[in-house]
Write a structure and sequence with these properties.
- Pathway: Amino-acid biosynthesis; L-tryptophan biosynthesis; L-tryptophan from chorismate: step 3/5.
- One of its GO terms (molecular function) is isomerase activity.
- Keywords: Amino-acid biosynthesis, Aromatic amino acid biosynthesis, Isomerase, Tryptophan biosynthesis.
- It catalyses: N-(5-phospho-beta-D-ribosyl)anthranilate = 1-(2-carboxyphenylamino)-1-deoxy-D-ribulose 5-phosphate.
- This protein has 202 residues and is of the alpha/beta class.
- The protein has one domain: TIM Barrel.
- The protein has an eight-stranded parallel barrel with strand order 1-2-3-4-5-6-7-8.
- The longest helix has 11 residues.
- It starts with a strand and ends with a helix.
Length: 202
């Protein structure tokens, strides 16, 4: 199971020493984790993910070049056409869908050919980092074979729930666990000890 630590801002090098598979950098001005610095040198095994919310293709491409991003995570209402345009960057495209108690999986149809991964997060007032989990049973109806990231309120307090989920049929295409706010001392500052404990459980 891959691990993505999102909302990176303040102690990037420290978290990178834990060798997660992905580090996420949020390029969204309304987020307290908005990243405006320079990403330090990272091990080649760690993929840099740029997180965007309804941003223009031009701005995203500029950030890819500036920060040498490996993947693009689209956290807004981006159309399949936007994803198609971004595919030309040859970067992995991760399209986010927010879930509360239920979800109409037919909305994925338009994205099947233009994304590399989906990410399922909890629907909240703000895009991402809400600290709550959605009902993972919803994923029993997942109709695709595309790998997905599981996100939303995942922390040490629900490790057993995650482990239980990963044994069930609906986790068949779960590719990565995405963590953020439950491992923070403050927005953008990760608790490395908590992350270390979490990483050991998978």
């Amino acid at each position: 199971m891959k691990l993505k630590v999102c909302g990176m801002k303040l102690n990037i090098a420290e978290v990178a020493k834990l060798q997660p598979d992905y580090l996420g950098f949020i390029f969204y001005e309304n987020s307290p984790r908005n990243f405006e610095d320079t990403i330090p040198e990272l091990p080649k095994s760690i993929k840099r993910v740029g997180v965007f919310v309804d941003e223009s293709v031009e701005v995203i491409v500029a950030k890819i070049e500036k920060h040498k991003l490996d993947a693009i995570q689209l956290h807004g209402h981006e159309s399949s056409e936007t994803c198609r345009l971004l595919k030309s960057t040859k970067k992995d495209i991760i399209k986010v869908f927010s879930i509360k108690d239920e979800f109409d999986f037919s909305v994925l149809n338009d994205y099947e050919d233009v994304c590399d991964y989906y990410l399922f997060d909890t629907k909240g007032k703000l895009p991402g980092g809400n600290g709550y989990t959605f009902d993972w049973k919803v994923l029993k109806d997942y109709p695709s074979t595309k790998p997905y990231f599981l996100s939303g309120g995942i922390g040490l307090n629900n490790v057993k729930n995650v482990q239980s989920f990963l044994k069930r049929q609906e986790s068949k295409y779960c590719y990565a666990i995405d963590v953020n706010s439950k491992f923070e001392i403050e927005p953008g500052l990760k608790d490395v000890e908590l992350l270390k404990q979490f990483k050991k459980t998978f």
